[in-house]
Amino acid sequence: MKLTDSIIKAAKPKDKRYNLADGKGLVLLIQPNGQKAWRMRYYFNENENMLSLGFYPAVSLAAARLEHARFKQLLAQGIDPSENRKEQKRQAAIAAENSFELVARQWWNHWKHDKNERHAGYTIRRMEADIFTVIGAKPVNDITAAQLIAMIRKVESRGALDKQSEY
Predict the structure, then answer these.
(1) For the chain, what percent of residues have pLDDT higher than 90?
(2) Residue range 86-97: average pLDDT?
(3) Residue 91's pLDDT band (boundaries 50, 70, 90)?
């Protein structure tokens, strides 16, 4: 039987946790404390696995079904959804380590040593005000020329074209 929002909302906790099945491996786990968690049961390489899809109501029935369908597509391609999720997290961590801001700050720390302290301070403050707020969190490899041009145009629009050297 397919789940509906009214069935889910009416599900009450019991002494032991139990599942409400939506079909094809998608279940809603009801905990004794009342917490409701989406789970996907699947088989990969003849092993049964369980994958968490989030908590209801933060993850709606429709969203859980979409995620379930996406993971089913991965399985059809011979990809373990759990391993795929772990790889995506690893890639996101690598991207975060290579954010423009982190790379720029590493450059600045190396660059500033033979510069006037005041000039080095201006440089990092300008980057903090004008660059990091726009592209600082983006992985370096994902920054496009269009994004750089838009950022430069924003700085130009306020008349900050150049800072005369005072050093």
Answers:
(1) 75
(2) 85
(3) confident
Q: Are 28 and 59 in contact (CB under 8 A)?
A: no
**Global pTM?**
0.61
Helices (H) and strands (E) in the chain, counts: 7, 4
Does residue 144 sit in helix, strand or coil?
coil
Give the angle subtended at the CA of 134 by the CAs of 128 and 138, to the nearest 5°: 100
Q: What is the DSSP secondary-structure string of 42-80?
A: EEETTEEEEEEEEEETTS-HHHHHHHHHHHHHHHHTT--
Residue with tokens 């301070």: 121
> Is 56's pLDDT higher than 80?
yes
Beta strands in the chain, from DSSP E residues, in sequence order: 18-23, 26-30, 36-44, 47-56
